[in-house]
Design goal:
The structure is a single chain. This protein has 10 helices and 3 strands. It is mostly helical. The chain has a 3-stranded antiparallel β-sheet with strand order 2-1-3, with helices on both faces. The chain folds into 2 domains: 67 residues, Helix Hairpins, CATH 1.10.287.990; 103 residues, minor pseudopilin epsh fold, CATH 3.55.40.20. Helix 1 packs antiparallel against helix 4 and helix 5 packs across helix 6.
Length: 203
């Protein structure tokens, strides 16, 4: 059975950028619901419960059709949120080597990367996610997915960084002002974890 991961920080650790009440609902309610619904969908398929979440999502087209949508949506929600929590941290960080060099080379500068990533976050219509990925060609790219889709489901690449732009991620504090939420998020990125993920993807 899949379980809700424990947050690597306290619920109020990201304030004032992400508030405690939002974290309580986002992690404890929304994410828990994805976990519960995923387990419910898989309850009659014990062989699928033996898979990791990444294995499950990467083979979603091969699983029984009657649960494909539930697994894609709820499995994606579980995977995306689990990754999102790991890439947040209190205290502003900056990218370390070699990720910093790769960002500068690909986007011209860190500021250029911020501009492109923010543009993708604001340009995602409705609910979804924005990602910095390492493609199969070992190149950095910014991509966006709708709803709870993930790079794992379409094979576009390995996620290094992600941002949740569903309204439930920010509405209590920022209401409809997604631009303020995205701006605030840059202050709570766990660049140390992103650097580890980049290094792993480049092996």
């Amino acid at each position: 059975m899949f379980t809700l991961p424990v947050l690597p920080f306290t619920l109020d650790a990201l304030e004032p950028y992400i508030d405690k009440r939002t974290m309580e609902i986002h992690h404890g309610k929304h994410h828990q619901t994805y976990v519960d619904n995923l387990n419910k969908a898989l309850s009659g398929f014990p062989e699928l419960l033996a898979l990791t979440i990444d294995e499950l999502l990467s083979s979603v087209q091969k699983i029984p059709k009657e649960i494909q949508t539930a697994v894609r949506n709820n499995g994606g929600g579980h995977a995306n949120h689990s990754l999102f929590w790991s890439l947040l941290a209190p205290g502003k960080q900056t990218p370390g080597e070699p990720l910093k060099d790769a960002i500068n080379q690909r986007f011209g500068s860190f500021e250029g990367f911020q501009t492109e990533f923010t543009k993708a976050a604001l340009g995602r219509f409705g609910s979804g996610w924005v990602w910095l990925i390492v493609t199969p060609k070992k190149e950095l790219e910014i991509v966006s997915t709708a709803n709870q889709d993930t790079p794992a489901t379409d094979g576009t690449g390995y996620p290094v960084l992600t941002l949740d732009v569903w309204e439930h991620a920010y509405y209590l504090l920022y209401q409809n002002r997604r631009v303020e939420y995205v701006s605030a998020w840059w202050n709570v990125i766990n660049w140390q974890e992103a650097g580890k993920r980049y290094a792993s993807a480049m092996k």
